[in-house]
Amino acid sequence: MLKIIRERLRQGYRTSDFPKVEPLLPERFRGLPLLDGEKCPADCRECESACPFGALHRVGGRITVDLGRCLFCADCPACPHGGLTFSNDYRLAVRQRNDLLYSGPELARAEKLEQKLLSLFGRSLKLRQVSAGGCGACEADVNVLSTLVFDLGRFGIQMVASPRHADGLLVTGPVTENMHSALLATYAAVPEPKIVIATGACAIAGGPFAGSPEVHNGLEGILPVDLYIPGCPPHPYTILDGLLRLLDKR
Amino acid sequence: MSGLPVIKNGGALPLAHIPRLTPAEFAAFCKVRLTEGARLVACLAVPEGEGDAPLTLYAVLADDQAGDLLVIAQEPQREFESLTPRIPQFHLFEREIGEQYGVNFIGHPWYKPLRFHAPWPGGRDAWGRDPKRHPQIGEMTYFTVEGAEVHEVAVGPVHAGVIEPGHFRFQCYGEKVLHLEISLGYQHRGITRLIEGGPWPQTPMQIETMAGDTSIGHMSAYSMVLEGLGKVEISPRAAALRAIALELERLANHVGDFGALAGDVGFLPTSSYCGRLRGDYLNMTGLLCGSRFGRGLVRPGGMGFDLDPAMAAKMLAALGPVARDTRGALELFFNTPSVLARLEGTGKVSARDAFYLGLVGVAGRACGLDGDVRRYHRGAIYAPDEIPVMIEEGGDVLARALVRQQEVEHSLEFLHQRLTTIAAGELLVAPPPPAPDSLAVAMVEGWRGPVTHVAVTNQVGRFRRYQVVDPSFFNWSGLALALRDEQISDFPLCNKSFNLSYCGFDL
């Protein structure tokens, strides 16, 4: 017993002061893209074919990055002219699929839930997580939110075991053919009203597996989505930031 | 069978040099070598044409003592005699090939689909299902136990918890589990087929997300395949950085597993501390490459990110207190009798079963099987190091925890050493295009065990077949055996002690 107390004292207090204090992310962290249209030569469309995941388009002279398709690759080959780099900004969650089509400088970050849902879920949100073909990384970064560093419970958010106890689904993975019906069954088991959160590039648009005959390219056309959290995988603070915005806590 | 070609880990050889044996010779060779202590690391089929063309079987055997890999092939056929009754290590490989190409392995005692996908090109399905339609996941005959008081418990695919999907069927007599059957495939994304015809620009990202908790392990194996096919060696610097990345991945996951084990036996101090510490190791990888899971860190020909002296010093400084806290959390765990009482004797797998099923990595070493790619098939990554034997004999949850403890201790020292002096050399030299008509084998000791990639190239040096064998491929069978005669309530604890990958199996 004394040993446990001694070790407890040594380990110290580890819960972060987020959201009061912004997290310190590593220098090499790749967040919201920085787009510099000045560097684009006229009529250059190289980025459209260079991104292997089709995340870039040049519309009316401006680069548009689909943050739902972007994997924030370290060796992003998209722009040989240096028109696309990544900032350290981890706040990426949005409410509408269209808001992920980003051409800078401001991202339409997630708004709070509609008043009725906010009054229901604002102080207590229970989520059932469904991994629909994920690689385990999004799941790991969702799991970590329940550790004492992030302490999800202090925001009134909890991951629950049964969809019957849940207010919504947090979906990861591109929705494999083999998880399609289980995902729909889980969604059906959540009582109304309910929300759906698409976490990670896979759940939004298929991620690195988009186009595989074994996957559905994300939730589009399968379930209505209330919050999109981009990234491959999203940083835990990106997920937490999105959830807190949804609940009007940021 | 003299003159059998031998390659080292990460090596490649022309297909023409691989001896093509008759089925009888193939079976005899495997039986002898696998009984004498070699291990079956991979077995794959390559079609010799379109549609229902005959298949050439390739098998890769690892001889740990010599540090060699033996590659043999079997004459092309459309129907095979199953080797599983004589050599159980083949059981999943034969099911995998059967599902992919719609062929039969006559005499296989447990012939069922593995991942529930339609057969690859060809008009036949091994189980007579409509080959044009996607099969229904989980639709197969499960093993059942008959008896008045025997009942069946079905769990999944969606489990209670933030975890990947899989289906488990327990045959129970009261609380006692007589048999557990594990049916997977829910995460099947068809990755190896996406890679065929490549390497494509998307391939590295698909490799890194085969099993997201082993991004570095899988990407290192893929990189070694391309380096082997391009006949290049990475610099000592790139090798040192790969080792650092791999050991950070091992630490993060092992420490996380201690947290999960502690949570499952209700010992909250270690559970809480390890949950935090796991993140600290992931953040060190994040420091290195911006991604906590090492995305973009390893690249064919070297590494995507360098570690300058200032950053190495920063990591060393961070490692000190984290290592202290890790040792403190583990000491508490192993010094608490109520914890040990729950671990000892639970979920036991015998050394004999482990050997016959070919269990690998932590699960294999916990049964006394002395296999470790870092030690016996070092390649460039661990070339300068003498990795100790880290095994336990018990085969139970405790043994699996103790193997992890040894590895955590070793990795901490190893990291300290490697971060203090980092060898010099080029960070990245892109390898030349892959050699045509060749086969390459790469193994990396990931945190669960050996991650094996085998590539077969076509006449223009593109991937004709790409096989991935995650350690979970072998070890799920070990978990099923561990549950025999256990209480069903011990399933979570046994499961955590293996902590296997669903997506790494499903691919």
Name the CATH superfamily classification of the largest domain in chain B.
Answer: Cytochrome-c3 Hydrogenase, chain B
**CATH architecture grouping of the largest domain in chain B:** Orthogonal Bundle
How does the overall form of chain A come out from the CA principal axes? Answer: globular
CATH topology (fold) name of the largest domain in chain B: Cytochrome-c3 Hydrogenase, chain B
The number of E-state strands of chain A comes to 10
Strand content of chain A: 15-25%
Oligomeric state as shown = heterodimer
Q: What is the CATH domain class of the largest domain in chain B?
A: Mainly Alpha
Shape of chain B: globular
- At the first level of CATH, the class of the domain at 115-246 in chain A is Alpha Beta
Annotated CATH architecture of the domain at 115-246 in chain A: 3-Layer(aba) Sandwich
Task: Report the uncertain regions of chain A.
Answer: none
The helix-strand sequence of chain A is HEHEEEEHEHEEHEHEH
Instruction: Give the helix/strand class of chain A.
Output: alpha/beta
Mean pLDDT reading of chain A:
94
Of all protein chain pairs, which has the greatest interface, and how many residues does each chain bring to it?
A: A-B, 66 and 67 residues
Number of domains of chain B: 3
Give me the side-by-side strand order of the main sheet of chain A. 7-6-8-9-10
Number of strands of chain B: 16
Instruction: Describe the sheet with the most strands of chain B.
Output: 5 strands, mixed
- How much is the average pLDDT of chain B? 94
Describe the structure.
The complex is a heterodimer of chains A (250) and B (507). Chain A is α/β, with parallel strands linked by helices and 250 residues long. Chain A has a domain at 115-246: Rossmann fold, CATH 3.40.50. Chain A has helices at residues 2-11, 46-50, 115-121, 137-143, 177-189, 201-205, 236-246, and strands at 33-35, 56-59, 62-66, 84-86, 101-102, 125-131, 157-159, 168-172, 195-199, 227-229. Chain A has a five-stranded parallel sheet with strand order 7-6-8-9-10. In chain A, α4 (137-143) links the parallel β6 (125-131) and β7 (157-159). Chain B is an alpha+beta fold and 507 residues long. Chain B has three domains: 6-106, NADH:ubiquinone oxidoreductase Nqo5 subunit (Beta Polymerase, domain 2, 2-Layer Sandwich), CATH 3.30.460.80; 150-183, no CATH class; 216-466, Cytochrome-c3 Hydrogenase, chain B (Orthogonal Bundle), CATH 1.10.645.10. Chain B has helices spanning 23-35, 91-101, 191-195, 203-208, 215-229, 236-264, 268-289, 309-334, 337-343, 351-357, 361-365, 373-376, 397-420, 471-482, 491-498, 502-506; strands at 6-7, 12-14, 20-21, 39-47, 55-63, 68-77, 79-81, 104-106, 150-155, 167-173, 176-183, 298-299, 302-303, 438-445, 450-457, 463-469. Chain B is 39% helix and 18% strand. In chain B, the strands form five sheets. In chain B, strands 1, 3, 4, 5 and 6 form a five-stranded mixed sheet that branches. In chain B, strands 2-14-15-16 form a four-stranded antiparallel sheet. Chain B has a three-stranded antiparallel sheet with strand order 9-10-11. The interface between A and B is large, with 66 and 67 residues.
